[in-house]
Amino acid sequence: MSDAAGVVAIDLGGTKLAAALVDSHGTIGAKLKLPVEKESPLKSIQQICEVAARIAPSWEQVRAIGLAVPGIYFAETGNVWAPNLWGWDQVPLRDALASRVPVPVVIDSDRAAYVLGEQWLGAARGLSEVVFLAVGTGIGAGIITNGQLCRGAGGIAGAVGWFALDPRKKPIYKQTGCFEAEAAGPAVARRAGASTAEAVVEAARRNDQQACRVLEETAAWLAMGLANIVSILNPQMIVLGGGLMQAGDLLLEPLRREMFEWAQPLAARQVRIEMTQLGEDAGLLGAARLALLKGT
Amino acid sequence: MSDAAGVVAIDLGGTKLAAALVDSHGTIGAKLKLPVEKESPLKSIQQICEVAARIAPSWEQVRAIGLAVPGIYFAETGNVWAPNLWGWDQVPLRDALASRVPVPVVIDSDRAAYVLGEQWLGAARGLSEVVFLAVGTGIGAGIITNGQLCRGAGGIAGAVGWFALDPRKKPIYKQTGCFEAEAAGPAVARRAGASTAEAVVEAARRNDQQACRVLEETAAWLAMGLANIVSILNPQMIVLGGGLMQAGDLLLEPLRREMFEWAQPLAARQVRIEMTQLGEDAGLLGAARLALLKGT
Q1: Nearest in space to A271 (alpha carbons), one of B260, B152, B11, B48
Q2: Contacts of residue B253, Cβ cutoff 8 Å, sequence gap at least 6
Q3: Beta bridge mates, A139
Q4: A89, A294, B40, B184: most buried, per Cβ within 10 A?
């Protein structure tokens, strides 16, 4: 890598950690992918530091570390809430890292990283009104309005998995939010009586009728949530990502069609709905972008 | 009025027009309220010019005109779409006014003006993450994120009346949007078999059981829409206004309670839900703010 002012980008997921050296053009150099050590927050913090040190050719050549986390980042305190990793307690990640690495560390939520990555180098390149909708085990959105990340009052903006989409309340809605309960991966598996959403998507690819019906039903829910994003934010583009979206056209076509049934008609015509271009690198490149934007 | 650098603020509604001289502190001087002349766009344009000239002590003392319109303002073209006033055709309002008045004219949608007004001098003074939810004959929202108006790709952001809240589609949803069809004034009247929503609110104040039930049912819908705003934007405050909100505590209490049933729990705890403090002056003061911000 020729650019001396690169950053170390780390995408900390619920199970895997990806890390890479990224230059200011978004070129990904040395890259690592490992299972997250999540026995304790301290283990994860040590792992982050070790990985960063392995990735960095030397600290002099690293401007900053950008870190995307699977949860909520509280900018005032530097704490992270990532229940899939560390349970329900907040972890003072910023302070812990600041005392262990010799360069600035910039942290944000994974969904902020996804939308930043796609806006920088992916499907939404150069746009100023963009939403990234991640649909996997959970549902969340990264939002850019007026060209800026929208974090909300407490860093929780984009919690669209909690969209209310059906007045007939079910108990599960109080745990995960209504939209997530009806449209994320586990709902797909549940509806099909399958073990995973991936199995359902594969069956649908083989034209299994029940699997196709389940995906259609799920697309109808997803379209309601998408439409709500379109109506409130009038974005130029919504980028779709996350595990369930590997279903590709099986979901994309019905989604685009059904969204029109609900959204404000002018806004529905203005929005483009596209699949992620960066795929699993969206978080990594978004983390790099975070570091490049703030670590200067 | 002592401040020589005031603005003429005009709140053009679907039936009434309010206009006032407003100084840089938000003090309202001479004020007029008239029925809108809406036989044709030209009539309305002439009326706006006449009213501005009557309000202005002299054009030298007026920095700019701020105008809030009941519809969508397209900033690229300067056109306005206000179906309640002028039917479905766009009207080139900015150009028409620019050729007729000797000061700059700043135009935006009424919901943009409402949220700007409340953020400047009302319930949301000084906040950077604010939504104004207007519930009257229709439903719409004005949105401020990162301290800036959120207009979206085409000036339509905030069209929350189109929120999808029930998968059991009704034909009316395609005309007004699902949320508006279930929760705006006409829905209240329809449910109660009354001629107007005001009549229902009055009956509920007299403790009429059916009217109370209808308001409760409406509050349940409103809470779903509110919750969706809370979950996606994580605002510091949502300010409620519009005709139906004159029901006051009859709606506010159930709304606050029911919102918690749906919204992302942390975001639900962070948001304050308040009634408008500026009331019918919100649009006027917001229009003034538009002119003061841009007309300098």
Answers
A1: B152
A2: none
A3: A135
A4: B184
pLDDT at A4: 52
Q: Does A141 touch chain B (CB under 8 A)?
A: yes
Q: What value does the mean pLDDT take over residues A257-274?
A: 97
Chain A residues with beta carbon closer than 8 angstroms to that of B144: none
What are phi and psi for residue A197, nearest 5 degrees?
-65, -35
CA distances from B206 to A65, B183, B201, B211, B246 (A): 63, 22, 9, 9, 15
Please say if the pLDDT value at position A295 is more than 50: no
| Cβ–Cβ gap B178/A271 under 8 Å | no
**Residue A84: its pLDDT value, please?**
86
- As a residue count, chain A comes to 296
Q: Do B6-113+281-294 and B125-276 agree at the fold level?
A: yes
- Interchain CB distance below 8 Å, B173 and A262: yes
Span A82-95, average pLDDT: 93
- Tokens 């009634």 correspond to B275
Tell me if A160 and B232 make a contact (CB, 8 A cut-off).
Answer: yes
Nearest-CA neighbor of B231 among B279, B187, B271?
B271
Chain-chain contact of A234 with B143 (C-beta, under 8 angstroms): no
CA proximity to A108, closest of A152, A162, A63 = A152
Q: Going residue by residue through chain B (296 aa), what tens digit of pLDDT does each one get?
A: 444 569 999 999 988 999 999 999 999 998 999 999 999 999 999 999 999 999 998 999 999 999 999 999 999 999 999 988 999 899 999 999 999 999 999 999 999 999 999 999 999 999 999 999 999 999 999 999 999 999 999 999 999 999 999 999 999 999 999 999 999 999 999 999 999 999 999 999 999 999 999 999 999 999 999 999 999 999 999 999 999 999 999 999 999 999 999 999 999 999 999 999 999 999 999 999 999 998 44
Using the beta-carbon criterion (under 8 Å), do B152 and A267 form an inter-chain contact?
A: yes
Q: What is the mean pLDDT of residues A148-155?
A: 95
| B196 Cβ contact partners less than 8 Å away, ≥ 6 residues apart | B185, B189
Domain A6-113+281-294 has CATH 1.10.1660.10: no
Q: Select from B111, B104, B113, B93 the least CA-distant residue to B41.
A: B93
Helix (H) / strand (E) element for A256: namely helix A249-259
What is the CATH code for A125-276?
Answer: 3.30.420.40
> Global pTM?
0.95
Map out the domains of chain A as residue ranges.
6-113+281-294, 125-276
Measured from the Cβ of residue B63, the count of other Cβ atoms closer than 10 Å reads 20
Residues 58-97 of chain B with CB under 8 A from chain A are 72
Strand partners, A109: A69
Q: Any idea what the Cα angle at residue A54 is, between residues A47 and A79, rounded to 5°?
A: 35
How much is the pLDDT for B61?
A: 92
Give the closest of A234, A261, A262 to B152, CB-based: A234
Q: Which of A120, A161, A128 is nearest to A233 (CA)?
A: A128
Q: Which residue do the tokens 């929202």 mark?
A: B141
